[in-house]
Fold this sequence. Notes:
heterodimer; A: 422 residues; alpha/beta; Peroxisomal Thiolase, Chain A, domain 1; 11-stranded mixed sheet; 3-stranded mixed sheet; 14 helices; 16 strands; 19% strand; globular; B: 411 residues; 12-stranded mixed sheet; two-stranded antiparallel ribbon; Ketosynthase chain-length factor (chain B)
Amino acid sequence: MSRRVVITGIGVVAPGATGVKAFWELLTAGRTATRRISFFDPAPFRSQVAAECDFDPLAEGLSPQQARRMDRSAQLAVVSARECLRDSGLDLESFDPSRTGVVVGSAVGCTTGLEEEYVVVSDGGRRWLVDDEYAVPHLFGYLVPSSIPSEVAWEIGAEGPVSLVSTGCTSGLDSVGRAVELLREGSADIMVAGATDAPISPITLACFDAIRATTPRNDEPATASRPFDASRNGFVLGEGSAMFVLEEYEHARRRGAHMYAEVTGFASRSNAFHMTGLRPDGTEMAEAIVTAMDQSRITPADIDYVNAHGSGTLQNDRHETAAFKRSLGEDAYRVPVSGIKSMIGHSLGAIGSLEIAACALAVEHDVVPPTANLHQPDPVCDLDYVPLTAREGRFDTVLTVGSGFGGFQSAMVLRRPERSAR
Amino acid sequence: MTSTVITGMGVLAPTGLGAAEHWRNTVAAHCRIGRISRFEPDGYPCRNAGQIEGFVPEEHLPSRLLPQTDHMTRLALTAADWAVKDAGLDTGDLPEYAMGVVTASSAGGFEFGQRELQALWSKGPAHVSVYQSFAWFYAVNSGQISIRHGLRGPSGVLVTEQAGGLDAIAQAKRHVTDGIPLMLGGGVDGSPCPWGWVAQLTSGRISSTEAPERAYLPFDADADGHVPGEGGALFVMESAQSARARGASVYGEIAGYAATFDPPPGSGRPPTLGRAVELALEQAKLSAAEVDVVFADGAGTPELDRRESAMLRDLFGPYGVPVTVPKSLTGRLGAGGAALDLATALLAMRHGTIPPTANVRPAPEHELDLVVRPRKTAVSTALVLARGHGGFNAAMVIRKPAGPEGKGGPC
């Protein structure tokens, strides 16, 4: 019999909210955390808005050496990992390190730290043969971003399977999906898994400017992220991290852990179409959704909520609307669908895990977050996107999806656990 | 549970363009470590690398792919083509979602990235390439390979430094076990540029020895670090049943695999590579005595070499199993290193020869049966080890296919 996997702890660092409680308040209030970029002067760039975290590593409890050697992406991951561990009630002393693993998803790894150091060793881009004497000692950890799961594993004392998953913007779904697979096959009993990204840096802005993927709505930063709205014109870059404690069901039950949700299905497919483009019919995302539903032994009628990728590009919004219709049929018109990128932007690899957190909290609290800034839906996007205001209800079975550069399409189903000890 | 077998390989390494050339040069111990030629290394304290010579991308890839790909992605796309061809597959003719690809990455298309960083910081945002958003990132090889071959099944990308090649192959195997008919998996890496080089140097593990053949000497008393290299290998994997059904010839079976993670330095807890080996052997239902050869990680730094030889002594006894480090010819290839070792191990089974560790005089303290000259012997079971910077360990056990379908016999 196949092992079951439940989420027993959640940790979040998000724009406008450090910690799960603040995160959930922000989302359910429909507040947005997008603003004019404050980390550096964005004036030279086409898109000048982002969803930034007000995050101070020292105030969040990292030591000065940790703060120095870790890129911001790793800092966010370690802080959210600490929170999920506290939330799970797991006693660090009591679990078996060899049966504990870590998976962190990240699309662009330590890109911010790399760029900062590049500017120094190249003397502002003047030298091709960059100067090794100005290199910081932890630069190798920025080069190869498996340094991020290393930091998390050291933090919690994991000695089982540890890895970084980097599948672009589906990294945060795929990392949790991988952790679920490792638990199911018996390679671990506890996985701390999630994702992080801190991409708000000049090179990231420039590369999305170049393909006009990000919004130029610089005059209205607070309402710049508008998935499914007729006026949307690109995504808003974000940052953040969400991490989870995932456990084999019996392991969690035995210790009387609170279970937020069971991960019952996960699948990923590739569109094999274009590195940044999407097939308009949403075929591969639909296939991932159907596979995840099959694994969960459910039909579209069972789905109570869909957390959309909802990046706010015309291409995406139409692609996934088509994918929902293709996979859920008539039920696509019944199910509430919302996009939290409208509030916290698109944190690339991290967002998939932040969206899983939103799904688990929706199951827990009987309310789903809205799609903010949705006043006039694109006529092609004709589903119920929960505009502006959170909606109460009972959400036993929820679906979350992701879509990313490289053509990756992922889908995950979470369900209310049948028994809960809390 | 059906077993997963390897039916195709694409090898691109300093030792050769293609598996045949790689094997010839590996058995002949032709060391391909040399002075860096892709940029002027004079100003840097370490100047050797394992580089691929004679690779002309235009000969292998359509011209429209060239502006949008980093050097390492061109290598990966070519290796993927070769693996698919070697497996006798026509990827234009696959059922929907029948094949996926999992690759390991370490630094992405870093040379491409350095050019764009320079454009941004010296000229401004308008000068950054429209391809930068995907040409450098870690997922680029899986993405580009999936597009080129129409692979719409599950795909993935793992980063665990040098352990990545084995971890990606194991993830691909998982998909085969779950019922995906065919998978491509492995790692190809290496994007030598000054910016990446300077970042490599900060690992503190790069040898500064000037003479190329003395720069990477795993298990030698003179070991003083390693040499980075480029290249790797990709494999076609499928269930034994599927291979039989389509009459594919089989290199070997992936019989066992495990990954573990070392506790942080100073914790007082022991390293965990040995546990990965035990778990992999257990999965393969084999005892240590049944292992014919170990392809060691061979870090090339005294402390890490000591740790590995202590583990091998513990599990196999002193001089208890033939051990080899053919990457002494190529340097350590990042995400491609362990994948290349797996290719070499499969070829060793096929040819009945353990390839040598080049240039090394094994230090007696390790008590290893280090193979320093090609050794003719039947190889039915091989263990491949990999360690990634930061604590990553992976161990994979492969087994020679039984019966006539194997790519066996001398050639």
